[in-house]
Amino acid sequence: MLLNTVSHTLSQVLDLSQTHSLIIACSAGPDSVCMAHSIAALVPGQHHLLYINHHQRPSEAKAEEYFITKLGKQLGMTVHLESIDPSCQTHQQFREARLAIFDQLATTLDCSIICLGHHRDDDIETVFQQLGKGATFGLKGISLQTNMPTMQLLHPLIHCSKSDIQSFLSSESIDYCTDSSNLSMDYQRNRLRPIIQGFFDACDTNSMQVVQSLDYLKRIHLHQVDKSNAIMDQGRRLGASMCWLKTDVLRMSSDPVVDVSVMIEQHWNQYVNKDHQRILAQNLASTAFKSLQLQTIQVDTDYKWMLIRPIDTNNSNECNQLLLNFKDTDELSHNRLCSFGFGKLCLTLLHQPLNSNLNRCCLSMDQLKWVTVTTIADSILTIPNQKKRLRNAQLSPIQQRWWPMLVVDNVVVWI
Asked: Which helix (H) or strand (E) holds 266?
């Protein structure tokens, strides 16, 4: 029964008649052990079994590593034992550390699919957690697959219940380890489980009925995500964490606040509650510079742009980062262009310094050594006719905070 469900789930993503190489994240607990056995039975190919030591249960970790090593030999999988920095403390830090390990291993092995052992009960618990955090449009639970720049996270057991997993392990006489933290009330999920079961009992319902409603919510959510992504594609991304959106494009939408909220919940993993949405609506209706600060990101808005960025982003540091690759003479001689928000900045090595314009900055080798990169907002220099120049260049308040300046000997040579 369980293998049929997992096979149907995997077939939505993989051609099971072909060989594949998957990375299976396995904690040695019942869920991930069940997933490893299922993949071994259903997906042909050379797979990798990954165990990550979080340094939270030192008395159990050694036994789990031994178990994983033995399981890998049993299933014919290559075993990888990794460790997270012991300094990690928060849930977010652990998540980022795991993703970094996934990314490194996926790159090293040229294997882009990471399988995780979350199941249907986890899916329902996640919806309750999202409700508790104030999610509005992100009530999507756990997706079957999550696409990331260098890898894809896959949940083969997402349509299997916890009881399905336990029945499978029992019927096949499959051993696993027991994680003592699953019994601790220090963790939110453990506190939620009896409450959710009480909710089911009080409503005279069961998890299958909830899952059917959840599937409908997920379909609606995916439709809205596609719409938000189309708007985001019209903006400009700087790396993975910063995005510029034109406010006139946003205002053309039937509900720009919904589009931005879904975008933030999807790409920055931040929940946008009703109060945040009210502020976003006010900011979009204004032509002045306005800001909304969420947990780890800030949303700046003016008459021309909306900028979504990490809170601790430093303007001048970002500008300096752009020119790190230009310090090499060979790079300069090839006129390499570097995108910056609204256009391209180019440094060209010449024998003599020339005047600058908005498209190109020409500096000699000697001058380049002493060039300072800053922004208009951070510069301590007085620029002649500054307001007029910025107005003529049609730089909005947000652009002025991020637009780069090059300074040589306390003289602005490019803006």
From this structure: helix 256-267
Angle at 177 between CA 171 and CA 179, to 5 degrees: 125
Three-state SS string over 349-403 comes to: ECCCCCCCCCCCEEECHHHHHCCEEEECCCCCCCCCCHHHHHHHCCCCHHHHHHC
Tell me the C-alpha to C-alpha distance, in Å, between residue 297 and each of 242, 272, 294, 309, 325: 9, 11, 5, 5, 27
305 CB-side CA count, 13 A: 22
Say how many residues make up the chain.
Answer: 415
Q: What DSSP string describes 302-354?
A: -SSEEEEEETT--HHHHHHHHTGGGSSHHHHHTT-EEEETTEEEEEEE-SS--
Rounded to 5°, the CA angle 152-155-158 comes to 150
The β-bridge partners of 53 are 83
- Nearest-angstrom CA–CA distance, 144 and 167: 22
- CA pair distance 274, 134, nearest whole angstrom: 8
Neighbours of 39 (CB within 10 A): 23
**Helix/strand/coil percentages in the chain, nearest 5:** 45, 20, 35
Whole-model pTM: value is 0.61
Angle (CA) 217 219 225, round 5° = 100
DSSP assignment, residue 253? S
Which amino acid, 141? G
Mind listing the pLDDT tens digit of every residue in the chain (415 residues)?
Answer: 899 999 999 999 999 999 999 999 999 999 999 999 999 999 999 999 999 998 888 889 999 999 999 999 999 999 999 999 888 888 778 888 999 999 999 999 999 999 999 998 888 888 777 776 666 665 667 888 888 778 899 999 999 988 899 999 999 999 999 887 766 666 666 677 676 666 666 666 666 666 666 666 666 666 777 788 888 888 777 656 788 899 998 988 888 998 898 888 877 877 788 889 999 999 999 989 999 998 788 999 999 999 998 886 555 555 555 444 444 444 444 455 555 444 455 555 555 554 544 445 555 555 555 566 667 777 767 777 777 777 777 888 888 777 767 676 666 666 6
Query: Do the Cβ atoms of 410 and 353 come closer than 8 Å?
Result: no
The span from the first CA to the last CA of the chain, in angstroms, equals 66
Give me the helices (H) in 110-251, please.
120-132, 162-171, 188-203, 207-233, 247-251
